[in-house]
Amino acid sequence: MKISGSDSWEIRVTDFDWLLVPALWIRAAERIDVPVAGVVTAPLDIEEMPEPSADTGAASGAALTQGWLYLWNVAVLWPQLKDQKVLAEVARFAPPDFEALADFPEFRRVFAARWPQAHAWHSARKRAGIEALLDRADGAGRDVEGQVVRAVEAEIGRKSAPFSLHLIVLPVAEDLIRPAGEGTYLVPERFRRTDGYQRWLTTVVRELA
Fold first, then answer.
1. Does 4 score more than 60 pLDDT?
2. Which of 24, 126, 137, 192 could make a disulfide contact with 16, Cβ separation 3.0–4.6 Å?
């Protein structure tokens, strides 16, 4: 929420990131081995693992790991960048050429080959998620963040001080919320549906309000 023309709090939630979520699918499909630490999350939370490419063996495991980590770290951090020249580079990660991966040719080839499947899977998830939310007659799951802020405001007896948070929701198999720069957090999708998430967010908002 952000009130135009006034100082207010803002919580921006990215539910279906166009690049991070397909990258998780490709990591799972190609069995790319990356260390889970910092902003690198646990693997994709998926019931049926996609099959790897028939010709993946042409790319070394190390090459795929290096390329994937480069893409992931840049994609996680770029929403915080304000420099317009840097932001213009984001388009170079887009299909069909994925120019930003030129320094990682083996990974670029595999990533480009799997992108249509990853994007189709991601788009289907997004449609299903939006439809499920709209179908909930009781509105459950909507504006959870706003409800938390209003509860904190009632608790402290005043409007919150201005603050800004960006929550990137990802379908990963963990319950750990990972800091990803100032005011930015990677939130596991399944954990966001729990009371634990609301308790975590309440603690964060109290400190900022």
1. no
2. 126
